[in-house]
Amino acid sequence: MTDNIGKYNEFRLPKHRQMVGTYASLAPKRPMQALVEFDITKARTYFTEYKERTGQNLSFSAWLVICVAHAIDQYKQVQGFRKGKKLIVFDDVDVWLTIERKRGSEGKVRACIIRKANEKTVMQIHQEIRAAQDANTQDATTKENEEAASSGPSRSMPDFVKKLAVWLYKRDPFRRKMIQGTVGMTSVGNVVGESTGFWGFPIVSGPFPLWFTIGVISRKPGLEAGRIEAREYLPLSIVFDHDAVDGGDAARFLSKLGELLKEGYGLES
């Protein structure tokens, strides 16, 4: 019988992976998913020109955060938190996003929260992201130590205590905004790089009423001013909390977001 099993390896599951199930329980119970593509040709041209002019890369994530934040600013209910029979809608758009922090030759994925993104410029957010990516800065080191100190006890809690803590946390939108922000954003890779053949809409849900997963930019024919020409498109999968927002508001939000992305909102300034 044992010969049928074959060779295998056994690894200890990292503690941060053990927490994934806990985070998943904070996701909306009735999610509304949208798979969309947006034309970002104009913005991509600007990024190329910016690098040629300055010799530096401008953060694509910073610009995407700006467009998302300003679209939310006009349809704030899409980032609303349910609290019993009430809906708590914050004025601030606090965007939680994943970044890769370099330490020597190694890179670690960390979270970075851009507070009041709807009141900032692309360059301000660019600088925040770059500072968070630099593991040698004092702020980055301090924040990493704080994250380890705060998450350590929760990882070692007994399961029943952990479930109770999550139950209480999920029903406190004010604490959730303070700790995690109001909107989540992650990606499957470097969205600034050229497409390497991968295309699709990765669907991930998170502990936010509004969650974005960024795909890989693709170049393909598109219609512009009545002509077919090569255009660049950004695929996004977006998860709304259907308990907080209906389809009409979600559609209007997506329409506004598409307009901002296509016009390269915020880049000229």
Task: Outline the biggest β-sheet.
Answer: 7 strands, mixed
- What is the 3D shape? globular
Q: H/E order of the elements?
A: HHEHHEEEEHHHHEEEEH
DSSP, total strands = 9
Share of helix, binned: 25-40%
CATH class: Alpha Beta
Unreliable segments (pLDDT under 50, ≥5 consecutive)? 144-151, 190-196
Describe the structure in your own words:
The chain has 269 residues and is of the alpha+beta class. It has a single domain (30-200, 219-263), classed as Chloramphenicol acetyltransferase-like domain (Chloramphenicol Acetyltransferase). The protein has helices at 15-18, 20-24, 41-54, 60-74, 122-133, 138-155, 159-170, 173-180, 247-263; strands spanning 31-39, 81-83, 86-88, 95-103, 106-114, 183-187, 210-214, 218-224, 227-241. The strands form two sheets. Strands 1, 4, 5, 6, 7, 8 and 9 form a seven-stranded mixed beta sheet that branches. The protein has a two-stranded antiparallel ribbon with strand order 2-3. The chain is globular. The model is unreliable at 144-151 and 190-196 (pLDDT under 50).
